[in-house]
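ok new one. same drill as before - structure tokens go in, u give me an amino acid for every spot. 203 of them this time. try not to just spam alanines like last time pls lmao
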């Protein structure tokens, strides 16, 4: 199966599903279409239970909003190792993907992690703690809520400005000493609720 999923005519992005391997690959140049939760859903949602691996290739600059919204039956890994051009992930992109597994490595040029991006991705793991890339300025509300398998330390960029409400709510696997960056002026309600972190606040 193959779908054209670029945001507009100048964004040539294609999704190709290989049914033999279960790999869904996004390739091309530019941004992916933003989808909705009900009326305009991503076309691959109907085969989400067959997807075993999601690959974002170099050239694709964004993962669309709601791209994998509530694909709870998708027992897949997410491979961003070649996603050198990826700068943004849309709202709710992997919301409720509770069977998404394997290890998450966020690409270094990512600038924003929006609300509910990985909400309740409860099987997703990290190697050596969760490292938020250096260029990220904001983390949306509920971005990693319920990601209980993200284990180890949490590292935020030096220049991060805002961390949304419940961003790391129920991230029970995050542990160790955590210094809140000096650039953070406000921490919203329940941002770190049920985390195992020991906080050092800016002086």
């Amino acid at each position: 199966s193959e779908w054209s999923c670029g945001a507009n005519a100048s964004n040539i992005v294609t999704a190709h599903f290989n049914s033999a391997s279960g790999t869904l690959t996004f390739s091309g140049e530019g941004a992916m279409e933003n989808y909705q939760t009900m009326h305009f859903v991503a076309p691959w949602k109907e085969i989400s239970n067959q997807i075993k691996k999601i690959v974002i290739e170099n050239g694709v600059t964004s993962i669309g909003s709601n791209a994998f919204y509530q694909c709870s039956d998708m027992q897949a890994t997410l491979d961003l190792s070649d996603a050198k051009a990826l700068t943004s992930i849309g709202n709710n992109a992997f919301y409720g993907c509770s069977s998404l597994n394997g290890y998450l490595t966020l690409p270094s040029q990512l600038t924003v992690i929006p609300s509910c991006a990985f909400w309740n991705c409860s099987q997703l793991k990290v190697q050596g703690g969760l490292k938020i890339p250096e260029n990220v300025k904001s983390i949306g509300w509920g971005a990693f809520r319920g990601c209980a398998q993200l284990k180890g330390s949490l590292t935020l960029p030096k220049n991060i400005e805002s961390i949304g409400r419940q961003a790391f709510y129920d991230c029970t696997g995050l542990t160790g000493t955590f210094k809140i960056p000096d650039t953070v002026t406000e921490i919203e309600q329940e941002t770190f609720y049920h985390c195992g972190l020991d906080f050092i606040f800016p002086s």
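The chain is about 0% helix and 25% strand. and btw The chain has a mean pLDDT of 94.
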